[in-house]
Amino acid sequence: MQTGQPSLTALGAARLRAAHQVLDHASILADPLALRILGDDIAVSLDHARAHTSGSRLRWFIAARSRITEDALNVAANAGTTQLVVLGAGLDTLAYRTPLAGRLRIFEVDHPATQQRKRQMLADAAIDVPDTLRFVPIDFERQTLAEVLRTAGFNAAERSFFSWLGVVPYLTEPAIFSTLGFIAQLEGGAEVTFDYVNPAASIAPAARMAHQALAGRVAAAGERIQSYFDTAPLCARMTEAGFRRVDDIGPAEIATRFFSEAERSAPARGGHVMHASTL
Q: What residue numbers bound the domain in which 66 lies?
């Protein structure tokens, strides 16, 4: 990320979420605010989606990771979760459209420049901010999640849910496992969802080319991909950190659950969504 500038990958993901509402008729994720928050940017969003080197698959994956997270959050809230933490919130709109907003204390954690830009876009689009939401600025590489959440009023003794989408690949391993270690040790119990990618060398050649093209674009924008994980060792490390349940949802399962039948052929390795719980 360029110093003092809002995240360009957050904007790119928001454009693909918005395009999903139009090009795919919200077949995976219904997000009525995805278009509104971008204002007059929708034509650019559609062009961005149509020209993307990954074709439709990245757009579908971005929708799927949000859908998996939101379904898990609904279950968690019904089981007693009282706090939602959206890490690296970007332009995600979950907090502004979920019917759970009145039942949860919500903390959106992000870099200050990205957060400031989002707040302006919310105001421009006349999207109301729930009274239960707190904006929490952070630099994941220089501040700890524990300190910024504590200052914002987060209660470690209450059951919590962490949504961490579109962030982990751009962080270093120490920053990632520092955050996961904090979540795993919360006394009230916690769940987390995040996405990650397998090493590029392990991905099928066709998918590898699309991934390398994406990696090149984000690096040029100053947001280089820094971390890749093989699935089995990652699951083992999460268990060691204190997560009692570790559910890895890989490319094949995501395709089966969310893609059309004609598009279900998918590489065995690539983009994953992890859902882990200490409960």
A: 8-277
